[in-house]
C-alpha cells in the first residue's frame, strides 16, 4: 500500500470511531497495524473534499461485495464431512486448512525479536527453523542476530533445506507454542534489576559504603563496575551540584565543549550554569547556544561524558560534593 492508500485507510478508520476501528485492526497484520498507526498519529487534519471522497469510494466498493458465509473454515469442514464421511474428510481438512490455525505462531509476529530469540534459543534448530519460516523475513533476520554464530548457522541450514511442513506437525508445533505463550507475563521480562538499579542503590548508600561495594565489583568485573559508575551520576544530575561545585566545574571545561554538552541539557541545568557565570559570559553562552545549528546526538553525549569525567575527578579531589545519602560524614 502506497502513502496515499495508507492515508485513505487512516481517514476511513478515524471516521469509524474507536470501537469499530479496533475491530478492523484485529484483522490486520502487525506491519499493517504499525504503518496505519503511524499514519494516523501524523494525520491531524484533512480537507472536507478528501474526507468525502474517501467515504464515497469505500461505500461504492463495499456495495460491490457480499459475504457468502460467516465462517468459511466451518463451512468447508461441514460440507466435506457430509460429502465424504468423517474419516475421509478429516484426511483432507488438515491439508486444506493447514495454515488457518496458527494462533501460537501468529503471536510471535507481535513480539520483540529479542523476546522471540529468548523463547526459541534452547529449542532444536529444526524446530526453530520450522517456526521462523512463518514470520516476515526482516523479523527473522532480527531474531537470528540474537543467536550465537553456531546456532544461527545451523538454523539457516535447516531453513534452506526445509521442504514444507506436514499439517499434523504444524498443528503440534502450534499447540506447543500456544501453551508456552499462554503464560504471556513470563515472556515479558519485568524491567527490574540491571546496571541502572545497582547504580541507584549505591547512590543511596553514602561514600564509604559506595567505595567498598565498587571496589568489590571492580575486582570481579572491571567493565561492570565502570558501567555502574557511569549510571551513578548522569549529566542531568549535574544540577544537584552546589554553586561552588558548578563554578569549579566551569573552570575546567572548554567553552566549545560546554556549548555542545548544554545542547542536550534540561532548562534547569542551563539556568544553573548561567547563574554561576558572570552576566557577560552567561549572555555570550546563551547567544552561542541559540545560534548553534543542529548537533548530532552522539556529539552531545560525547561531550557530556567528558564533563562527567571532570565531575568525577573533581569529586575525588574534594572540590565537588556529589549527591548521596546514608552516612552524612563531614571532614
Brief synopsis:
With about 325 residues, this protein is mainly alpha-helical. It contains 21 helices and no strands.
Which features does this protein show?
single chain, 331 residues, mainly alpha, Annexin V, domain 1, 70% helix, 0% strand, disordered C terminus, cell projection, FliG_N, membrane, Flg_Motor_Flig_C, bacterial flagellum
Which helices and strands, and how do they pair?
Elements lengths: L2 H14 L1 H8 L4 H13 L5 H15 L9 H13 L1 H11 L6 H6 L4 H8 L4 H8 L4 H9 L3 H13 L5 H16 L1 H4 L7 H9 L3 H14 L1 H11 L10 H10 L2 H8 L4 H9 L3 H13 L5 H20 L15
What does this structure look like?
The chain is mostly helical and 331 residues long. The protein has 5 domains: 3-62, no CATH class; 70-97, no CATH class; 102-187, Orthogonal Bundle (Annexin V, domain 1); 191-232, Single alpha-helices involved in coiled-coils or other helix-helix interfaces, CATH 1.20.5; 234-331, Flagellar motor switch protein FliG, alpha-alpha superhelical domain (Annexin V, domain 1, Orthogonal Bundle). The chain contains 21 helices and no strands. The chain has helices spanning 3-16, 18-25, 30-42, 48-62, 72-84, 86-96, 103-108, 113-120, 125-132, 137-145, 149-161, 167-182, 184-187, 195-203, 207-220, 222-232, 243-252, 255-262, 267-275, 279-291, 297-316. Helix 1 (3-16) packs across helix 4 (48-62) and helix 18 crosses helix 21 (297-316). The longest helix is centred in the last third of the chain and has 20 residues, at 297-316. The protein is flat and about 90 Å long. The N and C termini lie far apart (69 Å). The model is unreliable at 185-190 and 324-331 (pLDDT under 50).
Amino acid at each position: 500500500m502506497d502513502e496515499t492508500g495508507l492515508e485513505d485507510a487512516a481517514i476511513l478508520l478515524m471516521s469509524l470511531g474507536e470501537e469499530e476501528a479496533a475491530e478492523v485492526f484485529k484483522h490486520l497484520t502487525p506491519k499493517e497495524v504499525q504503518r496505519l498507526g503511524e499514519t494516523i498519529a501524523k494525520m491531524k487534519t484533512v480537507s472536507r473534499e478528501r474526507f468525502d471522497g474517501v467515504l464515497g469510494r469505500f461505500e461504492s466498493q463495499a456495495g460491490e461485495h457480499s459475504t457468502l458465509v460467516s465462517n468459511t473454515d466451518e463451512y468447508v469442514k461441514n460440507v466435506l464431512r457430509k460429502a465424504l464421511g468423517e474419516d475421509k474428510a478429516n484426511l483432507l481438512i488438515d491439508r486444506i486448512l493447514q495454515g488457518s490455525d496458527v494462533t501460537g505462531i501468529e503471536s510471535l509476529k507481535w513480539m520483540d525479536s529479542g523476546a522471540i530469540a529468548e523463547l526459541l534459543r534452547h529449542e532444536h534448530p529444526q524446530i526453530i527453523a520450522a517456526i521462523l519460516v512463518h514470520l516476515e523475513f526482516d523479523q527473522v533476520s532480527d531474531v537470528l542476530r540474537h543467536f550465537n554464530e553456531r546456532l544461527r548457522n545451523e538454523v539457516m541450514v535447516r531453513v534452506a533445506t526445509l521442504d514444507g511442513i506436514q499439517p499434523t506437525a504444524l498443528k503440534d508445533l502450534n499447540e506447543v507454542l500456544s501453551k508456552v505463550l499462554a503464560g504471556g507475563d513470563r515472556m515479558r521480562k519485568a524491567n527490574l534489576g540491571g546496571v541502572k538499579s545497582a547504580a541507584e542503590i549505591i547512590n543511596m548508600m553514602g561514600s564509604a559504603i559506595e567505595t567498598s561495594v565498587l571496589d568489590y565489583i571492580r575486582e570481579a568485573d572491571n567493565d561492570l563496575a565502570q558501567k555502574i559508575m557511569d549510571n551513578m551520576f548522569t549529566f542531568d544530575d549535574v544540577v544537584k551540584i552546589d554553586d561552588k561545585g558548578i563554578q569549579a566545574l566551569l573552570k575546567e571545561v572548554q567553552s566549545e565543549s560546554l556549548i555542545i554538552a548544554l545542547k542536550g541539557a534540561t532548562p534547569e541545568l542551563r539556568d544553573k550554569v548561567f547563574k554561576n557565570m558572570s552576566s557577560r559570559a552567561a549572555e555570550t553562552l546563551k547567544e552561542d547556544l541559540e545560534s548553534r545549528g543542529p548537533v548530532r546526538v552522539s556529539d552531545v553525549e560525547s561531550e557530556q561524558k567528558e564533563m562527567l569525567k571532570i565531575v568525577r575527578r573533581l569529586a575525588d579531589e574534594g572540590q565537588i560534593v556529589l549527591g548521596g545519602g546514608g552516612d552524612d560524614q563531614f571532614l
